[in-house]
Amino acid sequence: MTRDSYQDQLETLREDVLYMSEVAVDRLRQGLNALETKDEQLAREVIEGDDEVNELYLDVEQSCIDLFALQQPVASDLRFIAASFKISTDLERVGDLAVNLGDYTLEAQHERFPEVDIQSIGDETVAMIETAMEAYATEDPGLCQSVVDRDEDVDRRCERASNEIIGELIDSHFDTDDRQALMVDVSRLLLTVRDLERVGDHAVNIAARTYYQVESDDALIY
């Protein structure tokens, strides 16, 4: 295989990972919209759309395997291919978390805890994924660090949201008939907050792998 063809394969891999990120982020946005509007049809579309994300992941995985096996890449190319594979894994997980949002939408029965701003937290995690992918596309280590810095704020907001939910549960006075419904709602909302925090963690993973690829420095990975 000529050098030009090899470089074309590397660039195609980058484009495929970036496209996968667009699909995964779109699913995440749709999941958040479905949750906010209680749109059951949109929720089902998010759940059914997970197959596309999984297929894209398998395609990226195969491309990485082929490059490893046939080209025996070294140095920066090796780091790029490894980073691309790890990033695709994080994106596949983001797709799974979007499916969770779709499931939570279908399960939601009551309007509770309006003071917990799920959408704002969700918007921030979407932005983190987008920034991390921009760092991957442009090989910008500064953007990688900015994602890590933003994750601390998301973690604080998720902890505050969880505390508000639990505090409301403790302070609530509810009769026996409402007990089970309240517990289901509390559990679902806590899982939603946890999943959004995980989206932020995946954004950090993407940024850390990109930083290692560009700088050959694993400081953000650990």
Task: Provide structural commentary.
The chain has one domain: Methane Monooxygenase Hydroxylase, Chain G, domain 1. The radius of gyration is 20 Å and the shape is elongated. The mean pLDDT is 89. With 222 residues, the protein is an all-alpha fold. It has helices spanning 3-37, 40-48, 50-71, 75-107, 118-138, 141-171, 176-215.
Strand/helix succession: HHHHHHH
CATH homologous superfamily assignment: Phosphate transport system protein phou homolog 2, domain 2
What CATH architecture do you see?
Answer: Up-down Bundle
Total helical segments:
7
Total count of strands: 0
Q: What portion of residues is helical?
A: over 70%
CATH topology: Methane Monooxygenase Hydroxylase, Chain G, domain 1
* N-C termini distance: 37 Å
Calculate the mean pLDDT score and round it: 89
As for the number of domains, it is: 1
The value of Rg in angstroms is: 20 Å
Write the layout of secondary structure elements.
Blueprint: H1 3-37, H2 40-48, H3 50-71, H4 75-107, H5 118-138, H6 141-171, H7 176-215
Briefly characterize the structure.
This protein has 222 residues and is mainly α. Helices cover 86% and strands 0% of the residues.
Descriptive key words:
single chain; 222 residues; mainly alpha; Methane Monooxygenase Hydroxylase, Chain G, domain 1
